[in-house]
Structures
1.
Amino acid sequence: RFFARSLLSANNKTIVVFNHIIRGSNMQITPFSQTIMDAIDAYNAREEFTYSGATFDFSNSNGQVACFIGGHTHEDENFTTTDGVPVIITTTDNAGAEVGALVRTIGTTSEQAFDIFSIDTSERKLYATRIGAGESRVFEY
């Protein structure tokens, strides 16, 4: 409920949503993350969203959620919500915990892996500039 109420107060804003865990250890979207994505889609579509018996009317909102960013799976991944909002999962900066396909070499730049995010609201692009192992990514919203 807090998240949906917060969206109602974000008028004229470009919104970035962060959550630690988007996919659980079974690589399935967590129920909490699915609820967040459903709220994001309803907000951007200016529709009603119901959660736990409370209904939130986003029809008069005028902000926009640009993306949903998280981690936890220790891999780079991206997909979109049902309505096309980018969902971006980033790897861990901890080379020792890396389980993905990135090559990590202790003592070099590739030991690290983190993203610097920037948004170009005019072009409606989100840039994830990678520092260390992995590649930079660009998303449209």
2.
Amino acid sequence: SFLKPSTTNTPPTPILLLTDARDTTNQSLADLLPEIQSTQTPIYIIPLGSPRKQPDLAIRLSPDQSRIITGQQTTLRTTITRTGNTPQYAEIILKKNNNIIKRTRIHLTQTITRINDIITPTAPPDSHTLPNQTAIADYEVQITPFPGEQNTTNNARHAFIEINNEKIKILLLENEPYWDTRFLIRALRADPKIELTTIIGLNNRVQH
């Protein structure tokens, strides 16, 4: 409607068009040219953006387990994503409870780079936990921004792991132990999350 010819003698108002140059209607611009020319309306087009992706480094952090027992290990997984023309080398800093525990210079050869760290989360020094209470271990990974990086809000991420002092209590009763019982007992005792109590009987089976 704004392209309708003016019914007065006043000159048409110029139109400033900001565009990202992306076509969402699949309509040919040639169909619009006669209508635009008939109104004699000056249109000034300013394209925005660029076909090139903005250079950026982004990082993500996730533990395999968000809740563990004291002394238990888990894997901390770091994912670095490259966008655009970024440097091939970057420094990664890993912190636990606000203290640096690892500093690594890595070669970013692909769009996505993954780093896995086996960790044993511990509570912060100022955290005093009693039995059956939990503490929170705070892990943070940072990637050093490269010169001229526009978005640095995605250059650091946190992961919080809950540490519980209470173990899973299991009572195992067996009157006629066999090899499978011994195997089960060894497997349960090897799990740091389990507190196992076993009662083994050596009497003969009584038939009723």
3.
Amino acid sequence: WRKRLTAKIMQRPDVILIDNLRRRLDSAALASALTSPSWEDRVLGHSRIISLPVRCVWVATGNNPSLSNEMSRRAIRIRVDSNAERPWLRKDFQHPGLVLWVKKERSNLIWAALTLIQNWISIGKPQSTKTTLGMYEPWAQTMGGILHAAGIDGFLTNLDDFYSSGDDETTIIRGFI
């Protein structure tokens, strides 16, 4: 994990995607990278240590992924349920060819996001205090505030459900105790 993360962060990506998790996600290196403003490691094949800023969005995908306790407290779950046994065979998409649609509508999508943010700014940037996420408090308060100002409630309200189903480590310990 350390060497892969170092190589990826050296590229200074906007997004790092960990696609199609099939095993339990448990990595001390990844957990550290998710909560640190910078990443330090030795460059592969050299005796030199580098320090890199971590300024990217992290995304992991998977079907009902299992996470360690350290990983689950650094994650939020976004559930996508097509209500179909074989979702990849669906034909009733609102936007067929989603990637092409997003590229075509990029300016409108950015405008919509900026409108939500401007609305939040215009009412004084109220911070959400309903639910927060340790180590990510400023982000959670800001995102919760923007969404609440737009009338979109429920931000982070699925944390308890996620922790009870996604964090198998704590479930085992709770059962033992």
